[in-house]
Amino acid sequence: MNRRLETIDDHLPPLALDPAQPQAISPTDLAQYLRLDQCRRYLRLRLHERRKELNWLPRYGMALQPIPPMLTIAGRRFEQAIEAQVRERFPQAVHCAQRRQQGDPAFMTADHNHIVIAHIQQLAPNTAQVLFQPRLASQLHGWAMSGDVDLLLLSCDDAGACHAVIIDAKSSAAAKIEHRLQLACYQLLLEQITGAAGVRLASIRLGVLYRGELPSPQQTPAERRRIECERQQAFDLLGVTTAQLELIADPVPYLAEIETLLAGPDSILAATAAAPFAELPFHLTAKCDGCLYNEVCMRWAATHEDLSLIPSLTEPEKSALRAHGITTANQLALLKEFDGERLITPERHRSLISQLLSHPTLAPRLDELIHRARAFRRWRGDQLATTSYLPYKGHSSLPAVSADLHPNLIAVYIDPLYDHTQGMLVLLGALVVGYENGVPARRETVIKLLDQPPQSPADEGRLLAEWIGALLQAIAKVAVPDAEGLLRAPIHLIVPDSFSLQNLLDGLARQPQVFGSTPLYDLAAQSAGFEASMVTVLISERRRFRNDPLAYDSLARLAQMQRFDWGEYRRLFYRRVFDDLGNDKDLGWYTRRVRFNNQIPLEYLYAAWQALPPPPDRGDDDLIDYRQVKRTHVIGFVEKRLHALELLADKLPRNPLTTKPPFDLSCIVEYSRQARTLADALAEFLLIERYVALVTWGQQHLPPPEQRVLAGTSLIVRYELADQDPALLETLAENERRQALKAELTGGRKGVRLKAEQKKQVEPLPLPDVPLRLRIDLSEVECDLATALRLTSLSPGDKVILAPRWSVDERLPPDQREPFTTTARQLLYQPRATLVAIEPDGLVLLKPDTRYNKGDRRFTFDSNWRWPQPGEVYTIETDPNDIYGQRCMEVVQELRQGAANALYARLTDPAGVQVALPAAAQAGHAQFVAGLRALAEAGVLHPFDEHQMDYIANHGDAPTLLVQGPPGTGKSYTSAFALLARMQGLLAAGQPCRVLLSCKTHAATDVLLRKIAEVQAKLAAIRTQQPDLFAAYFDERLLTVPLFRVRPKERADVPPTAQEIDNIGPIANAPVCFVAATPFAVASLLKRDQRYHTEPFADLLLLDEASQMNLPEACMAAMALTPSGRLIVVGDHRQMPPIVQHEWRGERRRTFQAYRVYASLFETLLNLDPPPPLARLAESFRLHRDLAAFLRRAIYEQDGIPYFSRRNTTLAAAPISDPMVAAALDPRHPLVVIVHDEAQSQDSNPFEASLIRPLIETLVGQLGLDATTGIGIVVPHRAQRLVLREQLPEIMQALLIEHDGATVDTVERFQGDERDVIIVSATESDPDYLRAASGFLLDPRRLNVALSRARHKLILIAARTVFQLFATDEEIFQHAQLWKRLLRDTCRVPLWQGQRDGIAVEVWGNEEDA
Questions:
Q1: Which of 872, 730, 867 is CA-nearest to residue 738?
Q2: What is the pLDDT of residues 1218-1251, one digit of tens each?
Q3: How far is residue 115's CA from residue 130's CA, in Å, rounded to a whole number?
Q4: Element (H, E) at 1075
Q5: Exposed site from 802, 1107, 1123, 1313, fewest CB < 10 Å?
Q6: Which residues contact 457 (CB under 8 A, 6 or more apart)?
Q7: Would the pLDDT of 1006 be above 90?
Q8: pLDDT one-digit tens code per residue, 454-487
């Protein structure tokens, strides 16, 4: 009889949960689950271990991986130091764990609940007691929860009320999400215990007592204030002087997360226990290094050929592959065959490949993932052809070196080691290689290691000083003079990985007083810019170019694969460095333990310092593998690592297209990259933004067009005469004939003068107003037309490039010309056009740009229109030209040259700008305000509330005024009165008053001007109705103030009383006027002799949408403001920010530590110290009062804004047969959340589209809402918009309108718009995708804009996984709370539950706001 071999899965069956015997779990287990990227495999294995069900591991040669000993040692030492200080304040403190170890019977029980209760009951008024390590235990939601509290502070106030502070002590640099969750568990346990005993606690507070960060000049004033506050709290509460104490202000989010984790059969923990082990998602990350079950997961993955073993595969990609049935590395590797040059799809896989390519997450990288899977399978022994280098990866950051290019380069390989237990650098190594005539000629090694464990920041300072000094000497030794005999050479830095670079930069930033630290910091921090990069992160670079088979970035293993000889160091440093591979009789060689971390384990350094604790008297010695290492071994190993870095760098491609600037080595310590002025910082900001945009565009266009179609980047089209309009063909033919006639008449010579009649004969005819038509050609693309249309990122209205699919080098003789793919650089100079439409049958309509365009080759590029040839194939690409950015840079360059700009002056010297208003102006302003009150009292005009009146009546003499206007608060309408009030003041004083209205968009600019015209008309009507009242308060000249609109986009959007202008003449002739212009139009208006700062005319400038406006474009608008003019900046930093390309929040350059030029104008002014005066509007005239109440609680209370609405208009009631639709459209609930259990969608979600369809049909067909003005559907991704088009073919013809007011669109395009009903489709539901990309979806500014577009009804459709998402990133965690509060605090009324298409759906409505 054949018996099936036992597998790991057989030992890990689903767990049956017995209420009579609750499953054990601890707060630490839950915290570790979060720390390990919410790995459900960890949770499941932890549950098995708690049941003592992992005793089979040795049979498979596996063991639990111990926590790195230094973590335990550092934690113990930190706790002991804390306990000693606390005992000085509380000498009667009781250490429960020590009493247990000492055998005290009272403490030998399973828990210490009774000890805690007894101490609470014994407290006298105005006394306190501390308990160390009391074990709390109780049941939470049916789970047996127990854990040891580090410190429990109990106190009794003078009224006899008892209070508790639960404190978790952590030897960490920061308090983290998982620490707070652990504390929330303890709070629930304490509440259960005291409740069961009938003991009342008046309050429970939670605190994280942690080591904290070392001081750094890069800490902001707010960060320094927080650190000082937390240190003071630690002393005041506990007497601790060596740690920071974070007291959690709001524990509710963490308490709610525990309910998500534990409560009910659908909870994360219950679902994890019940699922088959193979179905539990997991993915290899750097966090796996420190997991107990590292070996279990790696063995399981090797046995099952799990996709996680594929290098660089992301969680969303893995999830998408699994959804299409690809679950193993072998399946992925065999999807295509490799013929030595390219991957070819076999006939049997064509259908599957087509499906995979229809997925936006997979399409761009499918071929790369197949290459990587084939490399992995080849490493495992399969005879699969593959490539060593990945194709289409662009150019390396490593500079090419030859006799002609960088011949005397100095390469500096750096290996820093960071002691995470002390927060300091403790070892620095460098290998300095000097080239001569392009060949490595000289080497110097510099390695410095502290003599003992660090005791203070001064130790790190001394280490850096010694190392930098020796490094400078080494550079001087290896340097070779340049061709002119001068000691100048380009320098390039190479570090192992991003973690090493971060540690180096942090250390240099902490020690700015060290000679040479600042120039080295500036060199290492430079990673983006038009100039060549100064630093290469080796592991990232290798992962980008090389097709390595390792799933993890191990410096030791990669070097060994290149036959690098580690010598004796492989044995000495085996544990946690070289112990990654295992050899099994069934599996052969496989990855036994994942090793992402490239730092030398700290245990080896502490062994070298002879600072490890002595071996235990009995039992195992956890440190035995480290004790043999000496100081010389550590230094020798670092030297080996540096040579391994050099070897790996030599195996990477070099970039021959970049030229690095040389440094004068005699004064390299004077090198600085910090901007000297704000203008310099603005210029660097614009350059980096442009650089990142161009690099991204270039990388997207490296693959051939057939792959770019699958990535959504390009379209391949064919030009056929039969597709063209006859009138266009006729005109083109006639113009071609005229061109030939001209050549005949001139003999092909330039400068030949023709007679008037001849000129008329050869002058080209104007083209008819019809588009150029090109047909999509997918003959060489592995997808059909529907998929290509769904994938493409191109939209009507886009500026595009039309380029030939194939190019030839015309410099070669004709018989030697071979066609090649048009390169990304060539694409930059191809003809431009505007995309008019993409029709469902595959026709693409273009409007050619037939002008010659001259570019600056940074922001714009030269181009000239060339008509396509019949039958030829072309590609359509997005146009990377940035005319707006170019204009911003030109304005900023003038600022750098000293141009006067009123806004720039207020940013650089806020106190230096004063406005002196004559008494008459103040009186005129006050009279206008009194008139508004009089009109309200007479019932002629509505009253203004205190917030509006603060804006209108006050701050008249403020040089700069900020106005925060939450959604629907009538910013533009109130601004019209505020501006007219100020204008009346200047009229009364006999002074000119030219008011400029400027917004980022044409639409918002037109809105402002229309509001001015509307208020003028309103006041004119009042003058007719109440002439005496009007005359008593208002200057009638206000009614006839001219309105000018500079270069509008659509004349129909401009009020009829406004005059359209394109020059400054009418403004100069009108001393009192309103001028509306976008920033770009302002620059065009003022441009004289290639300069923009020429004729400031505005006495008052209002900048609206300032939370979306960056500083350069704001300065562009402010060129029109006179130096003493007044500036009003209107915005809301709780709505959408400026769009940026670079990840500025993590930018390390000192320029952007000193100048936060990436922030919006509104946020920049708000963060000035002190800020300008601020007026805040509070009443929304758009939203239903319940929607406004939610936004007030969730967002605006933190700004002190009592945001509210009086509106209570709802949808009309109607009999609706579909119960789900009836529940969602119930007029009693203006805010509704539809929660569903679909969990596989990423950037498109057909299921959510299917839920939207009946809602739209009912709203339009039964409730009579206008499809284009009454309904708005907000989606996060364009792909979901296309899915909606497929789901709703009839209705969507009306809904999918391609203009600024489109009914179905992304949040960005909806800002400033409003609808009766807004439906938000969250779209994303795949948990892996959410964890990887949730920062985009969960941004509260995006949700704020989405929710606040609704006048009567808001319906949010989202997967349950969105509300279950637990982010460990601080910012994303806070962002997620806005979504969670919708269900937790607001939409708590169950309206309907059932199934749609077999998927569970629930409809929840809001509770009426009191």
A1: 730
A2: 999 999 999 999 999 999 999 999 888 999 999 9
A3: 12
A4: strand 1072-1076
A5: 1123
A6: 214, 215, 424, 510, 511
A7: yes
A8: 999 999 999 999 999 999 999 999 999 998 998 8
> Token pair for residue 238?
């506990």
Tokens of 463: 């280490």
Measured from the Cβ of residue 252, the count of other Cβ atoms closer than 10 Å reads 14
Domains assigned to the chain: 69-249 (no CATH), 388-673 (no CATH), 688-885 (no CATH), 893-907+917-1177 (3.40.50.300), 1187-1405 (3.40.50.300)
Find out whether 126 and 89 touch, Cβ atoms under 8 Å. Answer: no
Identify whether the C-beta of residue 182 lies closer than 8 Å to the C-beta of residue 29. Answer: no
CA-CA-CA-CA torsion sign (869, 873, 875, 876): positive
**One-letter amino acid identity for 130?**
V
Provide the pLDDT confidence category of residue 676 given band limits of 50, 70 and 90.
confident
Structure tokens at 1126: 């007044």
Tokens at residue 1113, please?
């474009």
Pair type for strands 806-807 and 820-821? antiparallel
Q: Residue 143 and residue 21: Cα distance in Å, rounded?
A: 9
Q: Which residue has the tokens 């019949």?
A: 870
Of 1193, 1248, 1198, 1190, residue with least CA distance to 1224: 1248
* DSSP sequence for 701-764: TSS-HHHHHHTTSEEEEE--GGGS-HHHHHHHHHHHHHHHHHHHHHTT-TT----HHHHHHHSP
Q: How many CB atoms lie within 10 A of CB 892?
A: 28
The residue whose two tokens read 């006027």 is 1073
Tokens describing residue 129: 């007691």
Mode of pairing for the β-strands spanning 714-718 and 151-156: unpaired
**Both tokens assigned to 1019:** 């006041």
Kindly state the tokens that stand for 714: 């390009």
Buried/exposed code over 949-979 (b: 16+ C-beta within 10 A; e: otherwise): bbbbbebbbbbbbbbbbbbbbbbbbbbbbbb
The tens digit of pLDDT for each residue in 838-848 reads 998 999 999 99
In whole angstroms, what is the distance from residue 553 CA to residue 452 CA? 30
Q: To which residue do tokens 């942090």 refer?
A: 506
Asked whether 196 and 185 are in contact (CB, 8 A), the reply is no
pLDDT at 1288 (0 to 100)? 65
Prediction pTM value: 0.88
Residue 394, Cα to own-chain centre: how many angstroms? 24
Three-state secondary structure along 1219-1286? Answer: HHHHHHCCCCCCEEEEEECCCCCCCCCHHHHHHHHHHHHHHHHCCCCCCCCCEEEECCCHHHHHHHHH
- ∠ CA 850-856-860, nearest 5°, is 55
Do residues 860 and 693 lie in contact, with contact meaning Cβ atoms separated by under 8 Å? no
Cα–Cα separations (whole angstroms), residue 399 to 386, 648, 1206, 1273, 1346: 27, 15, 64, 49, 46
> Any idea what DSSP says for residue 577?
I
| Contact indicator for 145, 25 with CB cutoff of 8 Å | yes
Total count of residues recorded for the chain:
1410
Please report how many Cα atoms fall inside a 13 Å half-sphere around the Cα of residue 295, on the Cβ side. 19
Give the span between the Cα atoms of 1156 and 1158, in whole angstroms.
Answer: 5
CB neighbourhood size of 812 (10 A): 10
**CA 966/CA 1179 separation, integer angstroms:** 8
Least confident piece of the model among 83-87, 390-394, 874-878, 1219-1223: 390-394
Whose structure tokens read 């070298």? 608
3-state SS, 595-624, equals CCCCCCCHHHHHHHCCCCCCCCCCCCCCCC
Give the pLDDT score at 1260. Answer: 85
Question: In which residue are the tokens 């992402």 written?
Answer: 596
Kindly state the tokens that stand for 176. 């983290």
Using the 8-state DSSP alphabet, how is residue 1217 labeled? S
Residue type at position 1233: V
